[in-house]
Amino acid sequence: MSHQTGIQASDDLKLFFATVKDGNVRALKVGIENEQLVLLDHKSVKGTWDEDYDRCVLDMVEPKQPCYIFYRLDSMNNQGYEWLFISYSPDDSHTRQKMMYAGTRTTIKLEFGGGHILDEMFTTLKSEVCLAGYWKHKETQHASAPLTLAETELKEVKQQHLDAAVSTKASTLPGISFPISEAAIEELVRIAKKEISYVQLSIDVENEIINLEKAYDIETRGLAREIPNDHPRYHFFLFKHTHEGDYLETIVFIYSMPGYSCSVKERMLYSSCKATLLSGCEDILKMEIGKKLEISEGSELTEDFLQEELHPQKNVHKQKFAKPKPPAAKGGRRINNASNLSDE
């Protein structure tokens, strides 16, 4: 289940969507303002789709500002002209903006009409938005056919899990390997590339598959609220912080297990699948996981806790052991007069 923001299209945008498909508009730009999807700009047709592309699209892209762009191609299907959907979210835009645009992407496509969208492209750089970037995007698609990138990586992860299970020695208890859904693979790839900051996975116990629960941008102070208190979960969090004056972005894996509020079968499956999931993320997806944690409650996940786990303080000065003083003598000092008595 993907996270949705609840943001909807304004009435003016809905009206424009209803009239834009007649062929006169080449491109349109949509943004989020006052918790609504609104029309920001549109361009008319002047030439063929590739002749108009850079003129229309590059003019709509602004620094540090996410947006959605619908670009009309010249091909048609039974519903009319086909469109390219571009989701632009630059890395240096505000975290809250990136979170809102990521969570509203499905909504905007439904409002426009999914049947009209031939292709879609997610980009973080202006150089990827231009016509040359689009051709590169198309070449990548053809190179991975008939499998998509997510399907290819899913196949590799499953093979990695199988190899790990086969090579396990008989004297140890082998881990359990479940397939990972396409949606989960896609978001794991994105957080491995540090395009988003939070991914939550769950295990479908009945169908024996690892599914995506949530994926979007989130700040550290909101992390505790994402931890359920009735089911285990796997969490991947991109912890953005500073340490000794350096800005760092570290992926933290969190295995949340609320204890006996969940079934014995759930506890067993989550525990057994954890190692193979992590090996697939690290070996196949090349994800760099800086820390692996296990918690029982979300309240544990504070800024200070994560800082201490990643950068534990070193006790560089140890106090020298002080030998205890002997007990003080009681009473007056005793004088040995044995030699004096012998002389008498």
UniProtKB/TrEMBL annotation:
Region Disordered: what ranges? 311-344
Give GO cellular component annotations, separated by semicolons.
actin filament; cell cortex; myofibril
Where does the protein end up?
Cytoplasm, Cell cortex; Cytoplasm, Cytoskeleton
UniProt-listed SMART domains:
ADF
Question: Which domain of life does the protein's organism represent?
Answer: Eukaryota
- What Pfam families does the entry give? Cofilin_ADF
Family indicated by similarity: Belongs to the actin-binding proteins ADF family. Twinfilin subfamily.
How does it associate, per the subunit comment? Interacts with G-actin; ADP-actin form.
Name of the protein this chain belongs to: Twinfilin
